[in-house]
Predict the structure.
Amino acid sequence: MTTQPVRFYQVGSFAVGNRLLPDDDRTVQSDQNRTNSLDSGHRACQGCGEALGARYALDAAMRATGGRLVAVNATGCLEVFSTPYPETSWRIPWLHSLFGNAPAVATGVAAAMKVKGKGDVRVVAQAGDGGTVDIGFGCLSGMFERNDDVLFICYDNQAYMNTGVQRSGATPPAARTATTEAVGPEPGNVFGQGKDLPRLAMAHDIRYVATATVADLHDLEEKVERAMQLHGARYLHILVPCPLGWGSAPNDTILVARLAKETGLFPVFEAEYGKVTAVSPIRHRTPVEDYLSIQRRYAHLFGEHSRTDIIARIQAIADQNIATYGLIDDEADSRGQKEVTA
Amino acid sequence: MLRQIEGSRAVAETVARCRPEVVCAYPISPQTHIIEAIGAMVKAGTLSPCEFINVESEFAAMSVSIGASAAGARAFTATASQGLLFMIEAVYNAAGLGLPIVMTLANRAIGAPINIWNDHSDAMAVRDSGWIQLFAETNQEAADLHVQAFRLAEELSVPVMVCMDGFILTHAVEGVDVPEQSDVDAFLPPYEPRQVLDPDDPVSIGAMVGPEAFEEVRYLAHLRHLDALERIPSLAAAFAEAFGRQSGGLVRPYRTEDAETIVVALGSVLGTIKDAVDGRRDAGERVGVVGITSFRPFPLDAVRDALSGARRVVVVEKAFSVGFGGVLSTDVAMATHDAGCSLRTVVAGLGGRAITRRSLEEMLAAASRDELDSVTFLDLDHGIIERERARMGATRRSGPSAENVLRDLGTVASWIG
């Protein structure tokens, strides 16, 4: 029988249709027997990207580990909306300690599992961007440096959303937050600041670093699966739009995440031992205006007093990312991945 | 078997015989010898199975301990002073979560001015954290208290801090009978957690609790401390039976039978105070001393009973609440408020200043004459204080006080009285 390889991204929305795929290639989320690690009934906002990202990532990790998984959670939206006492949305063993110590707590859990002869039980630690790049960074760097057997997942919504949208070290330039208001000659967050955590993780020479967005479920799940096949310190940085903080429509969460990638503002890639090994190329290069204009946190850049100068500076960042990571390339394989050989 | 051994070494060997499964290490004087020794035992394989983790801060040390304990492992770490303060958020969290971690606190002053020597400021700073705090008088007791601490912590699901005076105990070499492995194994059963992270029986630990239940959850923690007030004496009795010596308990009176004046104190200074009491007894004064082993939970009834015959109570403490006075004194006052005795606070030994028998005897003599101020700073150099106060009054930019005082003293060597 003649067969033809199924190509991804063949539908108009760029979404991957599971019905086109052989069973083995279908997503964990499409499986009726998925864990629902973060179950329904939690109190996240409509269209919450973090709730989506956490469910995607942990269900994939549960499948990859045969259900032998413990999750450690930093303080933040995910912790608050998932466990209002006495309810919990977690169907997996779950521990919340503090805002800034999730990586270290996860180290302790992994050490206990090892010493107890339960090395098959794997550990995921998760935090928002504040818990990762700011208050948790000391513990995260320590966990990386010791190469502890933990997958750390950052759900990056680019500000402190739980406390009311204040700037974090992951807030992008020009974005309005409650502590970088859209006033004055340089409205919103300043340029030239912020931490690029995936690159900082790579600088620790850890086994695996990857970025992903909630717009590409296949890619996200594959990266989680890959991460769980490996041992030692691993880092996954998932962009998760926040309708509340970003001022985007709840039904645009996937669109906004996709545009972050397609503009080049959020490079999607994988790295091993500090070197980029694969990038997800941009399919349809998109100007940053398309991404910025659907988020009210950038509203001050548009309208009567539009700031084309600031938009141009943001476009320059996107262009630089595209050049740095080689995000535009026609030689990507059928899965939209491009192998990088250095 | 008695061996001449450093206090830290005795504690390390005793902790190892308690079979900790995860030990976190971050160096800070004066506890460092303890974790160094345990690290060597793990590295050599004589303590196994045990994961020894060199962490990047004390905050991580307590956080790793939290994760390990919640996953069912017996967890131990040690710290002091600034290290305890750096981990304080996690210290409260461990107690709030009900995780039976055991930690040695090698008591040391808190800066600024930075000072590595002994006082009790660090322990007092976490007085309200929900940890049980046991104070060792000697190195033998420091070692023995760790065996009791693991059992107490795990029975009650409450973390326990064993406080031993930095340098004075940790670095002192004296005869210690390190508990034998077989005896420890008989006394300390394996850790059976009340709550554990287990994929076969998933639970959520660390949920957010609002006003509807927070008070009840906190009250349950208080009840566990009240349970500890019952358990600490019975464990000390069981320990005495198994090991043949007295260690631990709630309080320890010395020559208080007919005492008019009773001193109350924590830790190693009790040895010097007993000598001073003997001296005043020889001079005909009716004085005694009550050592408090369990500072948290605070044994109100036992302290009240121990002080019941006294006309005067003098609390000697190696810490104070700036702008107020004694810390331990307020607890003792709660125990004696309707006992009709006077209460005096003597702040002594801050930042490692030696508390001498001579100074204590002079203080006790003054107490017996009812000439002791309500708060006294023992051996305070009033001349130095007056010079700096005068300087501050004379000029706005008088400079840093610590450096001024050192310049006035004309020496950089520690003054040990």
Observations:
- Chain B has two domains: 2-243, 251-377.
- The first strand of chain B starts at residue 2 and ends at 6.
- The mean pLDDT of chain B is 97.
- The domain at 251-377 of chain B is CATH 3.40.50.920 (Rossmann fold).
